[in-house]
Amino acid sequence: MSLAERVVLSFVVGSQRFNYRTAAVIIRDGHVLVCREDDDDYVMLPGGRVEMGETSHSALSREIAEELHSTAEIGPLVYTVENFFERAGQRFHEIAAYYRVTLPESFPFRSEGIAFETYDEGHLLRFTWLPLRAAALGEANLLPRWMIERLADLPEATQHLVMHELPREASRAAS
Fold first, then answer.
1. Where residue 166 falls among pLDDT bands split at 50, 70, 90?
2. Which residues form the domain of 164?
């Protein structure tokens, strides 16, 4: 596929948005790498949307190259997730793949402040290393919220999760 033919697997159906996302769990020295896009009030794990004809593994390698300007060793799949949530008034149905990832030692590490900053597709991305403590991750508003408690104790085998982060009446409709 040429760049002009790239089709991101994210689309609106009625009042909901479907996303197919892949993300990196990058841990170094008791910290996890997170990204804040523009002036969002939340942070997320690095990654992005999978494109048509692309595996989640390949998409993550591409996203890391585009956003972090780095190579990476994509390790085992940690979680596959069916996530139902709402953001900015829109309901989402997201399928996501989370992989353990190792960056080269040359990738900047700072226990405080911004480690790396870049622009991607017109958005300012700021990457920081947060301590693997629920309080620090919660204070930074890590999304999805279910990840806050799971980062410090990642499973050895892949886990499949179905997460409902919608208001109670909306989550019944999504079931």
1. confident
2. 3-174
| Alpha carbon distances (Å) from 142 to 58, 104, 128, 131, 174 | 24, 24, 12, 12, 23
Please choose, from the candidates 92, 105, 96, the residue with its C-alpha nearest in 3D space to the C-alpha of residue 46.
96
What Rg do the C-alpha atoms of the chain give, in angstroms? Answer: 16
pLDDT band at 172 (very low <50, low <70, confident <90, very high): very low
Diameter of the chain by CA atoms?
A: 48
d(CA 78, CA 143): 17
How many angstroms separate the CA atoms of 158 and 79, rounded? 5
Number of domains in the chain: 1
Q: Which of 21, 20, 54 shows the shortest CA–CA distance to 35? A: 21
* Whole-number pLDDT of residue 171: 41
Q: How far apart are CA 16 and CA 60, in angstroms?
A: 24
Q: What is the CATH number of the domain that holds 129?
A: 3.90.79.10
Residue 120 sits at φ, ψ, to 5 deg, of -140, 120
